[in-house]
Amino acid sequence: MNFWKMFGASLLAWVAGFVGLFFFFIGTFISSLISLNSEVEVVESDSILYINLDEAIVDSPVSSPLGAFNPLGSLDFSMSGAESLTLLNILSAIEQAATDDNIKGIYLYTDGNGSISTSNIEELRSALLRFKQSGKFIVSYDYSYSQQNYYLASVADNIVVNPEGSIDWYGTSMTSIFYKGLLDKLNITVDVFRPTACKFKSAVEPFILYKMSDANRQQNQVIIDSIWNSLCEDVAACRGISVENLKGIASTLAATFPDEALKLGMVDAVEHEDYMYELFDSYGVQRNDNGLFNTISLSKYISSLNIPHLKTSVGNSSILEYEEAAIVAIIYADGEIVDGNEYQDGSVYGSRLARELRDARLNDAIKSVVVRVNSPGGSAIASELAWREMTLLQQVKPVVISMGDMAASGGYYISAPADYIFSDKTTITGSIGVFGMMYNIKSLLNNRLGVNVDNVYTSSSAIGPNLYMPMSAEWRKNMLKSVDRVYTTFTSHVAEGRNLPIEEVLKIAEGRIWSGVTAKEIGLVDAIGGINEAVGKAIELADISDNYKLCEYVAPLTPFEEFINSISGTYAKSLGLDYNIYGEEIRSIVEEIPFIFTHSGIQTRLAGDIKIEF
Fold first, then answer.
1. Catalytic residue among 304, 409, 431, 515
2. What does the pLDDT look like over 412-454, one tens digit per residue?
3. Which of the following is catalytic: 201, 311, 425, 520?
4. Where are the alpha helices (DSSP H) in 133-201?
5. 409 is catalytic
6. How many whole angstroms separate alpha carbon 451 and alpha carbon 164?
């Protein structure tokens, strides 16, 4: 009896403690939101805009207010914000900083722990080059420059590195992980169906080969050579060092140490950070009463601005309130293309994207549309659903594509109907091809686990493709016909959308990937540029330059998220906006196993494990 009393008391205490801890976290979370909302940033005179890449810089707004917070984000288990900023807001902020009398210049100190993609670095760098046209200064300091950060910093008037620091400048590489050996050990077989013409369609190779095929190695080498040439050309233009010398420096790691980098012209000074004060003085920036310089971070500067964007979700008629201004809608296709009608950050649900495109087509207030595509592709049928709505939209309103890091395979499929396509130099696009893949774990079950599967059926075709039985000859023939059919449809869509003869499309298709630079040369994209250029083109095509507003499509909030919004006054206001937005090394084999089994069926996608080192 005493045991049960003690057990009951202990259980009650544990439950009470858990409930108390839960409400403590919720209370702290809400307090954090409210405190964020209560902060109003003011830009003081003689301020320096400080960019350290501490935030995650993303293409599309994080749809959920909960996505911006990590309750275990710090060692003391306090509620800490994993803040993210959208590329569009950053570019708008830098554009405004160029004309802001309170901003005297920009200080790059890129030691933050945020994440940013290669294409977004490229677009941020372009924005900094435009900022320099205002006559204001940009200076950069770091104790050690990664190659990506040095590429960004190369726009600066002065690049300074710590005497004990280093500079990474070594070139580009592309890494793919191959699982064939793992599948052999597990007694798992893979059936692959790929049109004969799609010899470059490498998404299947990790599961059937131990290393790159000759065709895949060839296309990957061309890609990284193109990207490396673009990076060197950009740096050469700013630093006055020839492309050939920059490539030689990379090959010999000649700029690793600060003194060597200084001699080679890669940096302007080898000093500790306090030297930057002398630079600020030399640019005429006035110190405050404490003898220091006024600085404002990128996120806080954004919060001080009234960036004139709107927000809408599918079917939301609130946008009609702004009929006095023409609307340029921005729709995001950010992530792998999958079947379904859901909302989830990091995935593009085909039916959901189709609904957003349809909504933009039927909304009279929207005069043109920009679609930001950052996707390796995915489901063929989901891509087709989005393609159909993209085609219908393009028939009644201008549609401009802005390609991010990747707009490949299904990502290109949905882009093809647009009036105009922009890509970054470092964008990976193309991969016009298709494949089918099915796994069979019969040997694993039988020989390793002692599990047998048996069944009855009315015909050999009644047992469709599945994990437990080898594929029948009828189903194998059917799968081959399916991938050929999708490939024909895909190439026809490209020929129609890009106004190219089908013979030309077939030459540049074959599942081959291209850099943005090469894609422009062969007619897959129209121009090199980022989302800013895409918005400008959408405005031009709609002839609405005198009076327009931007509207970003985001996912509708859940009831709980609406509740958090009602308490906090919306996290977006803490960023100073008038709309609601929220904001590796190789993974272990164990983490990759679920990935292996998520791509069965007909797919039009790029291999998900390609990693470009930059």
1. 409
2. 999 999 999 999 999 999 999 998 888 889 999 898 889 998 8
3. 201
4. 147-153, 180-185
5. yes
6. 60
